[in-house]
Amino acid sequence: MMREELLATAAAVASPEERFCLLKECIQVAVLRSLHESGAFGSIALSGSAALRFAGSSSDYATDLEFILLDKKHYKPEQWLFAAKRKLRFMCLDPRIAFARKLSTHTGWIKIPGILAEAGLARAEAETETLGFRIVIDITPLERTDCRAKLVEAAGECFAVRWIAAE
């Protein structure tokens, strides 16, 4: 979905809260598709509220994309985020991406400046507000790996994810 199509889709939604969630979800879907294309789901599995939203049956929007590390051998989060940045740029968005490695979690931040103002969601005094979310990867070893795979169709994209259901 290109920037203009994304904004047109959001404009069709009356509620500002729903419009905000729709914009964020469309960008999350683009990132998930990029992770799929990069082979990331060979090493990580979607978890938490994002797993329930995209692979489960929840109607609640996911605030962040949460993952669990399954295989350290092919774990390349910086490369995956670079590919996601490229995909978002192809969509005519101007992403700001950062990444930090901590002891038990690795966290990426994806921010899209200006999109909220274009969608009529930024406050007048805050034209530079950004739409953003985190990508959190729990790198602590799992005791059980009951992963599932699912083909996801959302926001005009189709991709496969590995996911772990909430306990």
Index terms:
single chain, 167 residues, alpha+beta, Nuclear Transport Factor 2, Chain: A, five-stranded mixed β-sheet, two-stranded antiparallel sheet, 5 helices, 34% helix, 28% strand
What's the topology here?
Blueprint: H1 3-11, H2 16-37, E1 44-47, H3 48-54, E2 65-69, H4 77-90, E3 96-101, E4 105-113, H5 115-118, E5 130-138, E6 148-154, E7 157-163
Parallel strand pairs: 2-5
Antiparallel strand pairs: 1-2, 3-4, 4-5, 6-7
A few lines on this structure:
By secondary structure, this protein is an alpha+beta fold. It has helices spanning 3-11, 16-37, 48-54, 77-90, 115-118, and strands spanning 44-47, 65-69, 96-101, 105-113, 130-138, 148-154, 157-163.
Task: Please provide a written account of the structure.
- The protein has one domain: Nuclear Transport Factor 2, Chain: A (Roll), CATH 3.10.450.620.
- The mean pLDDT is 92.
- It has 5 helices and 7 strands, in the order H-H-E-H-E-H-E-E-H-E-E-E.
- The strands form 2 sheets. It has a 5-stranded mixed beta sheet. The chain has a two-stranded antiparallel sheet with strand order 6-7.
- Helix 1 packs antiparallel against helix 2.
- It is globular.
- The protein is 34% helix and 28% strand.
- By secondary structure, the chain is α+β, with helices and mostly antiparallel strands.
- The longest helix has 22 residues.
